[in-house]
């Protein structure tokens, strides 16, 4: 009886041991297949992160416009957005919010929040063209002069300004000499209305700043189609110069008493050869 019992106990023990080993072996692969959830949770949190969008009021020409943009939008990109909405070229915009905003700043970095009021100062190209617009009588005189090839300084439309004489504060002109643009703006000249004009060449921005007593227009160089000039009889050290701002000659913005030594440099800068002067 003891032997039988001993054999049975031994068999049962062996079977139990064998079963435990088999069970242990079979569970190892399942443990390796358990997915890691940490990475999935982290990826989801990143995807769910959203940039806040704010709505601000842009004030332009006494009108208010509601404009929405992400808070991390740079001022440069915001100007491009306004160009599409209002038609004012981004290069001709100034944005004011507690001071002048710089292109590299963002809406958030300057403290602009929902409902903030941003002042836009700028002009459309049509506004600039309107300054240089001519009357029907002027066009008729220009066509007549063109047909007879009359010098610019003898044409009636230009005599109105030239007859006022040489401005006292105009920069010195030098005949038969070519010079690079000076480091200071060209000043003391006159426009068609007889008002003072100052030309500032911003080569790093590829812009020409055309300033009068009333305002400053920032013209992209590529917006100027052509530049014409001619020496003034009796004052050959100075020129009459026309900046063509539109598709026709009627859109020329005339500047009088431009120092002759800078004429070639002005043409090269405006028409795309400015690198040699930079």
From TrEMBL:
Start and end residues of each Ubiquitin-like domain: 52-121
GO MF term set: cadherin binding; RNA binding
Gene3D superfamilies: Phosphatidylinositol 3-kinase Catalytic Subunit, Chain A, domain 1
Pfam families: PH_UBFD1_C (PF25343), ubiquitin (PF00240)
Composition-biased stretches (Basic and acidic residues): 17-35
Recorded superkingdom: Eukaryota
Region (Disordered) location: 1-35
Protein name: Ubiquitin-like domain-containing protein
